[in-house]
Specification:
With 159 residues, the chain is mainly alpha-helical. The protein has 4 helices and 4 strands, in the order βαβαααββ. The strands form 2 sheets. Strands 1-2 form a two-stranded parallel ribbon. Bound molecules: flavin-adenine dinucleotide.
Length: 159
């Protein structure tokens, strides 16, 4: 049996796994990604790809200057007892830079969702349109999806 060594073993090839794998590889780690299915992509390959990313660079480039406290207040009102300050801080501190990282260093590009209204528009601190909510991933530029389709990944070996 072949023995493979790596610095980081990533289990699963959805957005979470591939993002971790690409980021680690960019920083010089030897990464092995394993996938139990016959194809890459998981639920991510079927998804709409919309992400809620307050303060994302596409919104900033569109001239949207968002109060950084507003998404925190919105999450407090939305999550209630399940609000976890350290997790929310980690998310809000890193989600915008995450989009910038992928834009700068990978083939993954985004389209903005600057006019997408918030789903829970009655929650306090929401916006009629959430200016910086989004960034729709064009996954097909970065992940190995079948030509002409975002909805089903091609068969491919993990590497
Ligand atoms: C139709 C649809 C539309 C959606 N639209 C949106 C949207 O617009 N915005 C949004 O935020 N969310 C959306 N979602 C939800 C979103 O797709 C998921 O929350 C997200 O893709 C989860 O990503 P993930 O990387 O955690 O998991 P997944 O993408 O499911 O990836 C997990 C991978 O791990 C693999 N795996 C599991 N166990 C093992 C194992 N033991 N060994 C090896 N591999 C393993 C699986 O086979 C899979 O490939 C949508 C979902 C659907 C179905």
């Amino acid at each position: 049996m072949n023995k493979i060594t790596c610095d980081l073993l990533v289990v699963g090839s959805g957005a979470a796994g591939l993002s971790a794998a690409v980021t680690a590889a960019h920083h010089g780690l030897k990464v092995v990604l394993v996938e139990k299915d016959a194809v890459f992509g998981g639920a991510t390959a079927w998804s709409g790809g919309w992400m809620w990313v307050p303060g994302n660079p596409l919104a900033r480039r569109a001239g949207i200057d968002e109060d950084p406290q507003q998404p925190r207040t919105y999450l407090k009102n939305e999550l209630g007892d399940r609000y976890d300050a350290s997790r929310v801080d980690a998310f809000l501190d890193h989600c915008g830079p995450m989009v910038a990282f992928f834009e700068r260093h990978t083939a993954l590009q985004f389209v903005d969702g600057n006019s997408i209204p918030d789903i829970h528009g009655t929650v306090a601190a929401t916006c009629s349109t959430w200016p910086s909510t989004a960034g729709r991933c064009n996954w097909s530029t970065a992940w190995p999806l079948s030509p002409g389709s975002r909805s089903r990944p091609r068969r491919s070996a993990c590497s």
